[in-house]
Design brief:
single chain, alpha+beta, Ubiquitin-like (UB roll), DNA polymerase, domain 1, 5 helices, 5 strands
Length: 157
């Protein structure tokens, strides 16, 4: 099968890549572009470990064909910090010990950022609802929710 040429923007940078028609965006990010933050947890869109934003919309990269991102903008965990300066969500995850094994952390951070971009003052219930598509087997979610709410407060001030 012939590879498809795709041009897109990842974390603010223009990228070009060749992909097989059956490759997912997650495969392209990890295998072709070497953005390894998004993880494959399930391959079916159920766990959220591969969460990225595609043209500002939160998606599971394991469900998006890589060839379908032509001309689109993708944001991954690698683009969240500003150089060495961590995003407030990243700092608050560390401060609240809201991570353990790390498999789910990139997806949770991307999902939390997408929430705060849409709603800078969410309730605890809204945070829990928004993050419901991201599964974590280690933390129990309480510290994650606290970290998101704390980051939201900091970002508003």
């Amino acid at each position: 099968m012939a590879k498809i040429h795709v041009s897109a923007t990842v974390n603010g940078d223009a990228v070009d890549f060749l992909c097989d028609p059956e490759q997912t965006l997650l495969d392209v990010l990890r295998d072709e572009l070497e953005f390894n933050g998004a993880k494959e947890g399930c391959g079916t869109g159920d766990c959220g470990a591969c969460s990225v934003t595609l043209d500002g919309r939160l998606v599971c990269a394991c469900l998006i064909p890589g060839a379908e991102v032509q001309g689109k903008t993708i944001e991954t965990i690698e683009g969240m910090a500003d150089g060495e300066v961590l995003h407030p969500l990243q700092r608050k995850f560390i401060e609240h010990a809201a991570l353990q094994c790390g498999i789910c952390t990139p997806g949770l951070l991307i999902a939390a950022r997408a929430l705060l971009e849409r709603n800078p003052d969410p309730t605890e219930t809204e945070v829990r609802y928004w993050l419901a598509g991201n599964l974590c087997r280690c933390t129990g979610y309480h510290k994650i929710v606290e970290a998101v709410l704390d980051a939201a407060e900091e970002m508003r001030t």
